[in-house]
Amino acid sequence: MGFRPRGLLLDMDGVLYHGSRLLPHARRFLEATAHLPRVFVTNNPIRTPVEVADHLAALGLPRSDPADVLTSGVATARWLARERPGFRFFAVGADGLHRVLAEHGTEDAENAEFVVVGEGPGLDYDTLSRGIDLIRNGATLVSTNPDPSVDAVVAGRHRVLPGGGALVAPFEVATGLRATTIGKPEPLLFVMALERLGLSAAECVMVGDRPDTDIAGAARVGLRCALVRTGRFLPGASWPAGEPPPDWDVPDLRSLLLRWWRDGVLEQR
């Protein structure tokens, strides 16, 4: 018998949905793989795991346990707690990032040990100035994720918004220091997801929509990878030079299921 996964790591935006729009075949894919334990992994630090689970349910998908949702914000908070129990932080980003960090540390704009930059509202002249001052006085600069930009649906229209990589860049330029980056394609998010599953990388598959983060990062830690071309990387686009190819490259989740059923990777249910 060939390879059969024992667990799944699933990206969400661009795989299961676009903003508030459910993508075709997402529900069928989750139903067909419901017997496999899975962790939803995302570089987006804006929502808390509970909010992510609520969003999936609001789209009509099966309700997920928030403990099975791993955002780059949660991964950052857990990493900081391991590095410095009871850490003090100054965060720049949406409210959800502040809340997940506060579950493990204390927000302290005067004496922060870490300046954490995520996504969403929060970056302005005052927060940039405060962060620079803290870093110059010894705080460590941390970025939740390196994405230069992210796709979003605002008022029913597609928009490209600044990602974590773009928002941390002013701090790096002003201080001359590189941030410690937590999210994909760095290994930590994948490693934490595997810890949650209690499985090795060789036993699992990562399903994502971005070659530069989902596929490249998963391949580096030894995961098999499936790329679905329902996000920014569309059917017909040439594979980026230098990026490792996925094990499966398909137009959508239905095509992935059909391939897995045909090849015996997944038992049809």
Describe this entry's structure for a reader.
With 269 residues, the protein is an alpha/beta fold. The chain has two domains: 7-43 and 185-263, 3-Layer(aba) Sandwich (Rossmann fold), CATH 3.40.50.1000; 75-181, HAD superfamily/HAD-like (Rossmann fold), CATH 3.40.50.1000. 34% of the residues lie in helices and 22% in strands. The chain has helices at residues 26-32, 49-58, 72-83, 95-102, 125-136, 164-175, 188-197, 211-220, 253-263, and strands at 7-10, 17-18, 21-22, 38-42, 69-71, 88-92, 106-107, 114-117, 140-143, 149-154, 157-162, 180-181, 204-208, 224-228, 248-250. The chain has a six-stranded parallel sheet with strand order 5-4-1-13-14-15, sandwiched between helices. Strands 7-6-8-9-12 form a five-stranded parallel sheet, sandwiched between helices. It starts with 6 loop residues before the first strand and ends in a 6-residue tail after the last helix. The mean pLDDT is 96.
Summarize this structure briefly.
This protein has helices spanning about 25-30, 50-60, 70-85, 95-100, 125-135, 165-175, 190-195, 210-220, 255-265; strands spanning about 5-10, 15-20, 20, 40, 70, 90, 105, 115, 140-145, 150-155, 155-160, 180, 205-210, 225-230, 250. The protein has about 270 residues and is of the alpha/beta class. The chain has a six-stranded parallel sheet with strand order 5-4-1-13-14-15, with helices on both faces. The chain has a five-stranded parallel sheet with strand order 7-6-8-9-12, with helices on both faces. A two-stranded antiparallel ribbon has the order 2-3.
